[in-house]
Design a protein that fits this description.
Strand order of the largest sheet: 1-3
Strand content: under 5%
Largest sheet: 2 strands, antiparallel
Structural class: mainly alpha
Radius of gyration: 18 Å
Shape: globular
Distance between the termini: 21 Å
Number of strands: 4
Helix content: 40-55%
Number of helices: 13
Number of domains: 1
Length: 301
């Protein structure tokens, strides 16, 4: 998600308005690709730096924190507004999401809303109907998805700090890279940033790709979404994707006790200390599998 680029601030084939302040990096196709593949290749430096324990632990920590930045921040808060929080913590969530190196909160969430509006239909940015490679990461190299779709995210474009972060979305990753180096030197940079970021990219990409072709479908949704327990484990609950497409307004993707949903557990902890509130969950009617896709999900973004 980190390298989709814009063409004069607009999609190639869409007529919706776009935020022009997406940042210079999104306008430099070649540089963005060099950075993206460069981070992948830099993982090979592990043969030089080795695997010191503090660096490996740093990798795990930066992975988990940033996964939550995507799942609890970009996805369940900014994209679907499944809970409420204050303006300061809203910015913290946006910063953590940016640190995941998947562009800014307005671009990510606006594009995700496009996915739900056109899921597995023309207009879906990353449907596997156009191929597994396309849905997993090929779509991020298409300029038509480069600009921020402002009309899809008007509820958050009014915050100047989010506009700023959307424009300067490369600041949090750079800050994290410097911090990793300061903590554990070259090994910290390789493990805490490069390896962690690469794993994070492909873990979250699996939601777009694998969770639309492989898994179970307890709900008869009009798209190809599927529940995938493996993807749920590596993405703190995002793998319960058919559940999510069935009722998008829920802060909890794992509807049942055995559907492990790490993001939901973290959100409950944040609720306990007063940082978030009004966590939305599916009503009984939405949990009834026999009702199929006729459940009213009009609350979902």
């Amino acid at each position: 998600m980190a390298t989709a680029v814009e063409t004069n601030g607009r999609s190639d084939d869409a007529d919706q308005p776009f935020v022009t302040q997406d940042g210079w990096l999104t306008q430099t196709d070649r540089l963005a690709r060099v950075i993206y593949w460069g981070i992948h290749l830099s993982c090979l430096l592990v043969v030089v730096v080795g695997a010191p324990l503090e660096a490996v632990l740093l990798c795990a920590a930066t992975y988990l924190v940033r996964v939550f930045g995507i799942t609890g921040g970009y996805h369940r808060y900014f994209s679907h507004r499944t809970y409420k929080t204050g303006r300061v913590f809203q910015f913290v969530l946006a910063w953590l999401g940016c640190a995941a190196t998947q562009k800014g909160p307005l671009w990510w969430s606006g594009t995700h809303r496009l996915h739900h509006r056109h899921s597995d239909q023309p207009g879906d940015p990353h449907s596997p109907t156009e191929g597994l490679w396309h849905s997993h990461q090929g779509w991020i190299f298409e300029s038509r998805w480069g600009g921020t779709p402002a009309d899809m995210i008007p509820d958050f474009t009014r915050y100047p700090e989010l506009e700023w972060l959307n424009r300067w979305h490369f600041v949090p990753p750079l800050t994290l890279a410097v911090l990793c180096y300061a903590i554990a030197g070259g090994a910290g940079l390789v493990w805490g940033f490069a390896i962690s970021t690469t794993l994070l990219w492909h873990g979250t990409y699996c939601v777009n790709s694998l969770c639309h072709i492989w898994g179970t479908r307890p709900y008869d949704t009009p798209d190809g979404s599927r529940n995938n327990a493996f993807v749920a484990l590596i993405t703190l609950g995002e793998g319960w994707h058919n559940n999510h497409h069935h009722y998008q307004a829920s802060a909890r993707n794992g509807f049942r006790w055995w559907e492990v949903d790490g993001t939901w557990y973290i959100l409950k902890g944040l609720e306990a200390v007063g940082l978030v509130w009004d966590l939305r969950t599916p009503p009984a009617a939405a949990l009834d599998r026999t009702r199929g896709s006729d459940v009213d999900i009009s609350e979902a973004a």
